[in-house]
Design goal:
- The protein is mostly beta strands.
- The protein folds into 2 domains: about 1-365, Neuraminidase, CATH 2.120.10.80; about 375-413, no CATH class.
- The chain has 4 helices and 31 strands.
- It has helices spanning about 350, 370-380, 380-385, 395-400, and strands spanning about 1-5, 20-25, 25-30, 50-55, 60, 65, 75-80, 85-90, 95-105, 110-115, 125, 130-135, 135-145, 155-160, 165-175, 180-185, 190, 200, 205-210, 215, 220, 225, 230-235, 255, 270-280, 295-305, 310, 325-330, 335-340, 360-365, 410.
- The strands form 7 sheets. Strands 11, 12, 13, 14, 15 and 16 form a 6-stranded antiparallel beta sheet that branches. It has a 5-stranded antiparallel beta sheet with strand order 28-29-30-1-31, with no helix packed on it.
- Strand 8 (about 85-90) and strand 9 form a beta hairpin.
- The radius of gyration is 21 Å and the shape is globular.
Amino acid sequence: MSGLLIENDAKEIPPRFGTSSCIINDQLYVWRGSTNIRSGSEMRTEAKSLYSLNIATLKWKVVATNGELPKATAAMEMCAIEQTIYVFGGWEMFGRHNDVHRLPLDDKMTWELVKPVNPTEAPLNKDKFGMVEHDGRLVVFAGAAEADIRQSKPGVMFFSYDTYGFGWTNELHVFDPKTCVWCVPDTTGETPQPSAASSFTKVSPHLAVLFGGRQKDGRVNDLAILDMDKWVWNGVFHPLTPQTLWPEGRSFHSAVSLLDPTTVQSSSSPKLLVLWGLSDGKPVGNANKNERSGEVLDDAWVLDVKQVTWTKVSSLKAHGRLWHNSTAYYLSPCECQVVTFGGSPVDLYRFGSNNKMSDTILMEFGVKTLFRSCAMYINENRRLFENVLCLLPVQVLGYVNDCVRYDRAKKIF
């Protein structure tokens, strides 16, 4: 395991939180995000709302797009289906949304609003939910939603906060981009409680893991596993005793699968990495239970999904943040690079959004293939091989050259 920290130039990619991202080929795409928690303001320059990171060189660039851009500026979710980016939901200064937009990565780079044929079956306008891809469809779960005439329907728990009517949900929806149809699958098992700002991560061809989040009475460390082939919730897990090794409750964390979820075999146990986030912290003065200081966490955990056991990763300490974004890029079925961008080192709701982060952290997990190990060694010792590099096949030489790292990268563990 190793990690690199890249201090990005604010002109290259401005600091922000609440972004969404996905990886297509060897490019990480980051969409929007916010700079101000108070007013919900956004990066106003639309041509600079989409950025891409070349994972090999760790260099950012602006991706010019056009068409009907998503309205939401933060707390939306993004998924890749083949060579197309899909964005759903999110919020901006005028409220939450439940629109689906897509961006084919072709010569036109044109955003398109995908209109469902059954809009009354769509999820509520929401943000801070989870979304994964399964069999070419978008699976959407939980989130903070605005109150409307459906507030009494199952799967929605509303309450009043300040002057806004909204609440947590545990509604589950599936959207098929080919037919433009929303559906609500019938699930069995114990459905998780309504929550928002949890993580919802695909860890195998048919399993997704829900962890943490904010529920009405505070931030939790609940764990649930959804079988998306059978639509079965495999329990809601909690620590069995106070001594059980288990992450504390949190929200605004991130989570990724350490094994390529498209190739994990049924005989293997998926691994889930959970990074940082915000805990409940301590009560503020004479505040009630829902008014707490909030503590930014600097811990990281790995879950063995099959055994439902946690391991704390001590070497990732001291890089804590919340409302950041983490995405995994799989070099092989058992080797991945986790890219984390943005976020904040403080509780945004208590201290405002002056403390935004624009750095990029790249972490490598797993066992390198012999081919990749050799390529990296050649790249790091080019002088030893400068007379014979020309003899390498073009594709191999290209791979060696792609092992170059950004010159501003600093090794952090």
